[in-house]
Amino acid sequence: MTEVRGIAVESHQEQIQPPLMFGSKPDGRLIPVLKLRIETSLDVFTQVIYKGDTQGSVKEGDKVTVRGNLRDGVLYAERIENHTTNSFVTGRRCARCFIATAAYGPGHDSEIAVLQEFRDRVLLTQFWGRCFVALYYRVSPALAAMIQDSRFLRDAVRTAFVQPLFRWVSRRFPPEGS
């Protein structure tokens, strides 16, 4: 396991085709990938790749620590700590809130960002919260798929669960800097 500390000088999300196994054919699937370049204290640039939807988790100028496997001059990240925003990305964490995203659909990034900040600032700093988040990431993708496919479920989950949770989190844990 390699650890690199530095400043992100380039950060962007891409969609790539997964590598093919011997004898398989391309199926059109795309994998989200975060690509970073990090300037270390030695003025050396490290290329970093993290597989997963991490849109907006690391921006240029953020101070980061990356842990992962170094292969062919590229660090394949398993954990990215963002010291600027005091958050992190791991192999189990995805930047999305599956159920809220399914209930709201696109265009509600600010509400979802409040829930993500609650996850990062409150849940992931406590043992019980990390256990809850791990369970949530195991169960919620299947639930989100059902919710997304049904207008009735989208409306019901948004009204009875996501909106009350958003209001509670907004009142109890106001965003940093407000």
CATH top level of the largest domain is Mainly Beta
Helix content range? 25-40%
Mean pLDDT: 78
Number of strands: 6
Q: Radius of gyration in whole Å, from Cα?
A: 18 Å
User: How many discrete structural domains?
Assistant: 2
Report the portion of residues in β strands.
Answer: 25-35%
Biggest sheet: strands, sense, closure?
A: 5 strands, mixed, barrel
Give helix and strand order, one letter per element, not per position: EEEEEEHHHH
Quick one: CATH superfamily of the largest domain?
Nucleic acid-binding proteins
State the secondary-structure class: alpha+beta
Distance between the termini: 38 Å
Give the uncertain stretches in residue-range form: 91-95
By DSSP (H or I, 4+ residues per run), the number of helices equals 4
CATH fold-level topology of the largest domain: OB fold (Dihydrolipoamide Acetyltransferase, E2P)
Strand adjacency order, main sheet: 1-2-3-5-4
Instruction: Choose one word for the global shape.
Output: globular
Give the tags.
178 residues, alpha+beta, OB fold (Dihydrolipoamide Acetyltransferase, E2P), 2 domains, five-stranded mixed β-barrel
